[in-house]
Amino acid sequence: MQVHLNPPLEPGRAPELAAAIVAAAADISDAALDYSPESIAVVEDIVDGFRAEGVSGEEMAESLVAFGCYLGEIVTRHIGGTWRPAPAAHPTTAPFVVVLPDARECHPIDWVFSRLEAGAAVSIRGLYATAAADGADSQFAEDAEEAEEAEEGAHG
Length: 156
Known about the structure:
55% of the residues lie in helices and 6% in strands. The protein is mainly α. Helix 1 (14-29) crosses helix 3 (61-78) and helix 2 crosses helix 4. The radius of gyration is 15 Å and the shape is globular.
């Protein structure tokens, strides 16, 4: 699904969209989004709430894109990287991605839409941990992997 918002989505607007969703989440649900990797769990909970309400990605597109920008800001602040236009050959929800210092692409906006569609089967914390592997935040990646293994053990 392609998202078309007014004004058009551009890489330079990602920090602004992230800041807007931080304020909205605080106002609407007292959610504390502080740009820490640990706050990814809060985003997962919020998206899971949308899923439980039965809303679609199209109905929540603006909020989901903004949460994706928030996640991308966590990536750029803790792992490194920059917002860039998405390559034309790779269809994504939004026309921009985070390019990590090692040139890998990260698709945090897609992470949010995928979580809404698939639920807990898509772990945004796990996706972040994968992005953080070999990056500046590799300790978080190790901690997230251990937590995910423990969670699987508790449910398995």
